[in-house]
Every structure is written in C-alpha cells, then in structure tokens.
C-alpha cells in the first residue's frame, strides 16, 4: 500500500475506515484492497496537490452568473400605463454578495452536498446513469475546517482502481442550511439513495425574498478510478435571478413595491441537466420598498435588499410584472404581461422601469348624490379614470371601469348612462297603516266648523232674499251647516240660449249665426222648451242624496227648512271631516228627478301648518283647491281670437283664471307603509388599479304611501252637468274601485252597472242605458217636435246616475261611430269649410251643439262661449273653449304615468269612461279634458274638442275616433269672463 504523502495547508486528508473498504470490495470486487487514492478537498481553483495522493478530495470553483451562457440581450416590454415602459436586459458577470444574493464561492454558504457513483471503466456516465445509484457517496455534507473541505462523517474515501470510473455531483448550500432560523429542507428535497441517475432536487420558492437562496450545482462525470487528483467541482447557478432598476424623465417618483405575479413557484432539477421541469402551482412574489427614484437609473433591489431567485421556466398564461409607484401624491400601478417569456437558469434578468414623470395617476371617487327612500334606491356620482397631467394645465383622462361587489342578497345595481351608479336595496319590510290625507288633516285640525246655515252661493250665513250666483256645483271647504237654492236650474236665466226658427237656407255667411250660437233647444226635466227662465218649483218635492263617495259626508238633508226653495244639509263632524263628492237631487213626490246638484268638498287653496300623521312633526304645506265662494283661481294667460267672414283669424292677449285642480278633485286618505331605519354595505373596485371603496347605504326611517296614491276627480259626458265617479289614481293601470254610499247602499258599493236599466237611481247604483232614437229638425220645413227631438236630454236630467251609451254605427260612412249620448241617429252631416257648396241631407239636425254654450265652428278658433244651465262648473267658472289651453300645447313639463306637470300646474291622468260601455279605462295612464266647442268635419262625426294628456302628448284633438261626446272625461274650468 502506498503511504499517503503529506498535504499542504490547502488540503485536508481524509482516511477511509476498514468498514468502508470492505463495502467497496464487496460492491466493486476490488482485486487490490490496498489501492488508495488521495485528493485535496479545497475551495481554491489552483489548490493543486501531488498526483500520488490516494484519498478522494475536491477542489471547487463558482462560475459567475450567466458565464455558462455568456450572452447579453435586451427586450422592450409594454405595460398598461401609457407613460411607462420596461426594458428587459439579460446580463452576465453579476455578483452581489448579500442575502437573497448571488454567491461567488461555495464557502459563502460553508457547505455543499456531494454524491459519487462508481461503475465499470467500460461504461460511460451516459450508459451507467440509468442503473447507477449513489451508494458510494450519497448526499454527504462537506464543510470547511481551517479553510479545507471535510466530510461531515469524518470518513476516508479512496480511489477504487483503474477498472472503474466515478461521476461526482454536488449542490450548495446543504439541506440543513438555515436562513432566518428556517432550514432550507423545508422547501428543498433531495432524491433518495436508491434512486437511479443523477441526483434530483425538488425546489419550492419561498414566499419571503429574504428566505430565497442562490442554489448552485456542480458535476464531474467519468473520472478515472485511478485519477489520484482533486476532483474539480465547478459550481453553477441553478436558478434565475431577477432584479429591477428604475428611472424617470427628471421628476421624482417613489417605487412602492414590485410584484412578480402568477408564475410557477416550484420545479425539479436533475443536477447537470440543461433545464428544469416546472410544477403546476403558481404564486406571486412581492418586494416592498420605498425607493425614491429621480432622473438617473436607480437600483431597486440592490446590495442592501434582495433579488428574486425564481425557478427557471417558460412563464405561464397570466404571468405579470407589476410595479407600483407614487407620483404627485397618487399611487399608480404599471402592469406588464409576462406570459410566454423565458427565464433560464444561471441568468440574471434586469427589468429597467422608465416612467414619464408627468402626473400619471388613477382617480377613483364614489360619492352619494341622491337617496330615494321611497324607491329604496341610492344614486352615487362615480369618478373612475386614468389621468395624465403634463403640467400644462390641461390633463387628459381615460375612463376606467369598476366593479360592484359584496351587496347583500336581494340588492342590485345599475351603471347609468350618465356615469352614476344606482344601488337598489333588498326589499324592505314594514307595517301598513291608513293615514289621513293632508286635505282632511287641514279640515280637521285647522278649519273650524261653520255654525251656519251657510248659503253656498254667498259663503255667508243665510239671509232671506239674498243669494249669490247659482250653479250646478257648490264647493265647501270645512265641516258645517250649509244650504243652497233648489228653485233654479244651474246658473238660471243667464244660462239659457234662445231658440229660433230655422230659415229656408242655413248655409252661407248671412246665416252662420244659426249654427254658431242662436239655437239652444234647452229643455227642463219635463221636456218643456226653455227660452228665458230657469226656475224650478220645489213644492211637493223632497231632497234626496243620490250618492256620496265618503260615508256620512251629507247628513240631515232637508228642503225648505232654511227658507223657501232652499235645500239644507250638514256635513260629518269636524274630527271626521274628509274631502269628497256628493250629488243631491230635487225629486217629485212621484219619484221623478227635476234637477240635481254636485256638492264638492275640497280644501281651500293656501299654505297650512299642521301635525303630520306620518312624521309626527309640525309641517307647513301649500295645498291646491277651490274656495267655497269668490274663488280667484290661478291667473292664467291665454288669448282671445276673432275672425272675419273670410275666416281670417286675429288674436289678442287675455288673462283669465284657471281652476287649480280638476273639477271634483279630492285627496283621499292613503295607506302608508312605515319602514324602520337600516343600512347595508357594498364595495366598488377600480378594475385597473384595484383601488377599492367600501360604502354604506344609510336608509332613514320612512313612511311610503301605498297605492292608491290618494287623489281622484269626477268625469263628465260632453254637454251633461252631472258627474260620474272615477277611480283613485294609481301609478299603474286601471283602478276601477270607487266606493260610494246612499240609502240603498249604506255600507258602500263600487258597482257600476253594465246592463241597461232605467231604474239605476231607484236602485241607488251608477248604471248605463242606451241612447234613444231622436226625431230631427227639418230646416226646409222650419218645424220640429222639441219634446221628441230632446228625448235623451230629458232622460239625462231625470237620471244623473245613468251613463247614456251609444254603440250605433252610421252605415253611410264606413269609419264613423257617432257615439253621442244625445242622439241615436248620426250627427248632422257636416259641411266642409273648404267645400261650402256640398250639400248632403244638410237640412237634418239630430244633435245639440250648444249644451255647453259654444256650438259648432268651421274654424279651429272660437271667439267665446257662454255658461249654460248644463255647465257643471261652480260659480265663477265654466267649461273652456278649445283654444283656451293653447299655452300648454308643446309646453315644457314632466310626465309621470300619464300625469303632466307644467308651470306649477298638475294635470292628472284620471282616465276616461268609454262612450259605448261606460267602463272606466286608462286610470293612471291617460288624462283627457273636455272643451265646450265642437268643430265641423266631413266626413266625420263632429266630436267634441278636448285637450289630450297621454303618453307624452299635450294638445288639442278635434276628431279622434276613440273619443266621442258620449265619453266621460275630466274638466279643468276657466273663468266665466273668457
């Protein structure tokens, strides 16, 4: 056996125990057990020793990062921030000796693990590796002692013999190496002793950069069994190094953090192989810093910080590089797509961030703009944008989307076209209660009862022989004791339009007056022609309540109790007083109704202070209405028109008064649902910046009115004086429920009969009856039977609760349905103003165009009208002529469910009653208003003029096939002076 030679101070001699020699002999059938080889174990490249040494030893050297590739290249990478770009540089000769560092020598870690494989000299490693196992030296730790490498087990390992070859593999640091108290074995595993082939390292990148290592590996393959020299181990860097630099265009920014997102965080590496095999899991790695960066390039993760050491890989889909920085007080994040990029082992990748130091930042603000408690909604103003400010005072903006999350179950949101955000909360639960209307509260708590009896024509206590203007409608504003004269029809003699015999020829300019205003054909309940008086006899008669829409509104109804010819009554008590409508009739002993009057209980217009039943607090509210007597209404600017015989129209400005509300309007008590206060949260997140805003919807306690909304008004067939009930307005479609009371129905009913009956009043019901066949006036013969001609007018007077319907179709004109309650046969076949010579049975008249004081007109303009005994308006008002409402046509306003509001005036969509059936239609959808005038058409049916308020329309319609004089519409009266 050769005697080992002395070693220098750079070598460490290791002697192998006999047990190890026996293992070698058994394993490899050594012929010369005494063959011993020695090598120096040393971390110096030039640590040469005698070639006669028999013990196995190592010399180590560490390659510079990237030396094994020796190449440098650059790539420009775009980001999602217009003013930010990233230059990728793959560089060499990087050496930073620090934590998370590139090491320049194995001695930096102070240890490495070694493996040795022995196989016959007839094989090379490429052949032997498939079956070779590291049972000669397996994962043996070597450390430095006095500057020399020594095996951790203090064994001596000898060269086997020339008949064998050896391959050596190593890695550093050893698996028991600790960083910050944690052994790297927690995230780095070594293949087993029985595994064939080169050792395999399974590595998971630590989340904390301070725990990451610069893993190095080395291999020396096919070393002869009698090498007798130090085995050279050239350690190479096994991971990819990542570092960052930043610079600006001169202004200062602060780098907040750098994140490598969604990259593979683990893999396996066969020592000596060219590349890694990545695992499937991904992670993100963030390096926080507050590095101030100015115009020159600044190292972000420098010698005092940490590099990223990542598993070499082809970066997966979704991999990103994010750099967050502060500029001008705003935080910005530049994101680059790294999908498909490659990180190779042993290379350093430097990413140089260049920021255009303009004011580049995200703005994100969500502020409450409106809280709609009734709608259970909150609307927010949202500013979400990317801002570039070059300092010239004109920033540029790019809108940035945002998401809404964390809403409670049942809540929803809408991003509105105007940039606002509307949050609708989950359904609210509350208690429903009936709450008195504001009008009723005023009557009960503000207005005293009147001792009376108050004459409704004067508004003062009754004085015999003194009375004011009579009418078919009387208004009262508070609880009390009232009376009105029942010995006069409507507004009396002033409401009679005289009747004249027709001449031999009705058409032509000389006789136009016959058509425009001289032929009244007015009658009383007995079909007697009225010429100059409108008196009624009250003897042997009684006063009866036909109907009331508030139970108990009219009480103690009497005739001649106050004075001769007067009807008196009392209202309900003040503490129960409620707005409403009623109709009182003068009835003969035989049960025939001679006349009837509408009693309208409504609040007087004004500003009132009262205690709200909803809030329990004192409230001041302006209410619209009509005063009991001498009401001034609203000053209303319109125009008066005139025209000459050639039809040339001229006009002049005129001001009259307009009733504040529709005729018969009342505000009902309404149901409210009381909701307690509550709150809920949600989150808005800006998509690009990730900036999140936590918001809270605060909803105060609230009382919300349930449908019906609580107002209604009466409806009228054209030319009739008596009202028909409508329904209570809702915000949806038809609401035909309208309760009314009388002696026949003390508990109330909402029945409106659809079968024909002449006994509706006797049965105490609103009902229908078909129009009866009228005789006609023969102008050529200049004769007529007024009683037969006016049969339906007489019926209308005697039956104020009966809706007279007409579904007759006149066959001479294919599309005409002359649905006038007055006549059974078709209306007069009208002359066309453009063709005055046409005559088609022109001598026959079946209708009465003068009932509301205006008659027919060839023109669109009517000069004036007179208030007749059939006008349903209270004193001081009358039904307007068509052009009176011109100021509202195409006027600005707001529509809501068919209702129209303009110039402080409200025109509700209170629906209509169908001329052929009497059915209530289009509640909350459509509102139509009668005018007193008519207009000739040919062919046509001479419908009444009316103002239409429906589906965004507001204007005059003269001949509309779905709106005939038999229809029941609303009325908005104007001053009698117009």
What would the keywords be for this entry?
rod-shaped, seven-stranded mixed sheet, 978 residues, six-stranded mixed sheet, disordered N terminus, mainly beta, 72 strands
Describe what this molecule looks like in 3D.
Among the domains are: 73-357, no CATH class; 360-427 and 676-704, Immunoglobulin-like, CATH 2.60.40. A hairpin with a 4-residue loop joins strand 30 and strand 31. The strands form 23 sheets. The protein has a seven-stranded mixed beta sheet, with no helix packed on it. The longest helix is centred in the N-terminal third of the chain and has 11 residues, at 18-28. The protein has seven helices and 72 strands. 5% of the residues lie in helices and 40% in strands. Mean pLDDT is 80; it is low at 1-53, 66-73, 92-101, 502-518, 811-817 and 827-843. With 978 residues, it is mainly beta.
Briefly say what this structure is.
Helices cover 5% and strands 40% of the residues.
Strand order of the largest sheet: 1-13-12-7-4-5-6
Uncertain spans, ≥5 residues at pLDDT below 50? 1-53, 66-73, 92-101, 502-518, 811-817, 827-843
Quote the average pLDDT. Answer: 80
Q: How would you sum up the global shape? A: rod-shaped
Classify the helix fraction into a percent range. Answer: under 10%
Number of strands: 72
Tally of DSSP helical segments: 7
Structural class: mainly beta
